[in-house]
Specification:
Layout: E1 12-18, E2 24-27, E3 32-41, E4 45-50, E5 53-55, E6 63-70, E7 73-80, E8 89-96, E9 103-112
Length: 136
């Protein structure tokens, strides 16, 4: 009787195990960091999306994406420095390893502060006591 050795390999779809903190609020010119961790076999790739647009640059002037993979786990960090109003929106952490459907988690980021108002000077007599509406 002969014996045979064999190895059984299985695939496990991606699962986000540590999602980004929800509903982040940051001041204009402040910094914020979003972290996302996912597991699977093979280890998943993590991509970041802001307002339906993939953040595909590893390093740009104000944004840095770092990714570390160890065994079956991937940790990705998106750091935004000197936040501007257009950094507000929905950020999506997307984990995909090609097995099953990708796992996604959304987080809302709001950048607040610094309003700009235009005031006519000198004020016109008819507008002397008119209210000023500031939209931030």
């Amino acid at each position: 009787m002969s014996s045979s050795n064999f190895t059984l390999k299985y695939l496990v779809s991606s699962l986000i195990t540590v999602p980004p903190v929800m509903d982040t609020v940051v001041a204009v010119r402040g910094n914020f960091t979003l972290r996302c961790e996912a597991t699977g076999f093979p280890a998943p790739n993590i991509t970041w999306v802001q307002n339906m647009t993939e953040i595909n640059m590893i390093v740009e002037e104000r944004r840095v994406v770092t990714t570390m993979t160890s065994n079956l786990t991937t940790l990705s960090t998106l750091m935004v420095q000197q936040a501007m109003r257009n950094d507000s929106g929905t950020y999506t952490c997307r984990a995909d390893n090609g097995v099953g459907e990708p796992d996604t988690v959304n987080v809302s980021v709001t950048v607040q502060g610094e309003c700009t108002a235009w005031v006519h000077y000198p004020p016109l007599p008819s507008h002397r006591f008119s209210p000023l509406l500031m939209i931030c």
